[in-house]
Design brief:
This protein is an alpha/beta fold and 193 residues long. The protein contains 7 helices and 7 strands.
Length: 193
Amino acid sequence: MKRIAVFCGSSTGASKIYIEEAVALGKELARRDLELVYGGSCIGLMGALADSMVEEGGKVFGVLPDFLQEKEIAHPHLSELIVVKSMHERKAKMTELADGFITLPGGAGTMEEFFEIFTWAQLGLHKKPLGILNINHYYDPLVGLINHMANAEFLQEQYRNIAIIDSNPAQLLDKFSTYTPPGIKTFIQVSQS
């Protein structure tokens, strides 16, 4: 594994712990000589994560849609900034560049990125690990929702634990080394009588 894509908020959140743990993740990635792929911004958790990697001498690849670059939120000190035409192209490029994915706290955009990668894993479009850094129990409701989907049989049981969850960056990355991709989703029609 060489590069980790991180999905996270362009806001800092209500508690300083979110920034602190984003910084800790950046330092851990750099310590392991892993490269960062992220959304290319200099603000929020994205900016804190990239700053910590840059300060530690790590390689950082930002992928930013051109309309956001025009708003002057592009991080100025990246190893490489890749400018794309759309949000769709951004996700595709990040997925192409990454060997694994980590989701930090964020809003609707972060959730959309997480669920797309989650779905692609179900469909066998990638076999890369997907982690959730559950800072300050932020993602407890999401974990509950995933379990609810499986219990209600809208999510096949083999995908209940598709996301690797931990609250510690080092432990989360350790778990990536033992990741086994799930089987490819089957589409079984059950007749109702």
